[in-house]
């Protein structure tokens, strides 16, 4: 199936959030509790895998969006994960949603955790993919190879292969398949996050890993049901942090995907989608039994 036209054919809407125009798209049914998607470092809403979005949208109302200063949204990148989470809450309020489910990937997972702590009544269920609780006691920190690969100038295929997908035959194939679904001639230039915005995000991430506004000491206060997933060898947000989160979150379920890394949710988008949909359905039916 050709997924490359999904974003091109879905209009971008905007809503005012604290004086900034914030861009978003919606997919799937018009009713039901929305699943709001929180994006990664240097990613706009057009960097979600359209295959994943299309699969989830068969059953769920989805909202993908760009936080301020990113992609199609105006304003400036917020200076901390906490401020980004406050903007996320204001965005959800601006759309008049009383309660939402949240899916956070990578940095989007950082924002999701903090949002759940700031506004627990707003958040029903949580999916955390390729993410962690920041720095602190028990955390496993990224290695020096991350600094090498996130610097400008490296071919994107090589970056994704090194940081998102294990450098195996299967990993290389997953890298190419993801890139083919994302980077095509209909992708608008504005979908690419600027270097300035990326640097601002990076500063917030560094603060998070230094323990600044990390959620690690507060995970026990996140009471919502949480599905925690990752690849078995994530080098960007090391997989041991996934286990750490699942142990500390009081209502967590954990899934680790084989032969995969940071981008496991895209490498195995069909399996990941099935897990997300089943998790949400089971919570609506009363939870684990």
Describe this structure in words.
37% of the residues lie in helices and 16% in strands. It has 289 residues and is an alpha/beta fold. It has a single domain, classed as Alpha/Beta hydrolase fold, catalytic domain (Rossmann fold, 3-Layer(aba) Sandwich). Strands 1-2-4-3-5-6-7-8 form an 8-stranded mixed beta sheet, with helices on both faces. Strand 3 (35-38), helix 1 (50-57) and strand 4 (62-65) form a beta-alpha-beta unit. The N and C termini lie far apart (36 Å). 47% of the residues are buried. The model has no long low-confidence stretch (mean pLDDT 95).
Shape descriptor: globular
CATH class division: Alpha Beta
Percent helix, as a range, is: 25-40%
Helix-strand string:
EEEHEHEHEHHHHEHEHH
Note the total helix count: 10
Measured by DSSP, the beta-strand proportion falls in 15-25%
- By CATH, the architecture is named 3-Layer(aba) Sandwich
Quaternary arrangement of the chains shown?
single chain
Q: Main sheet: which strands, in order across?
A: 1-2-4-3-5-6-7-8
Q: Mean of the pLDDT scores? A: 95
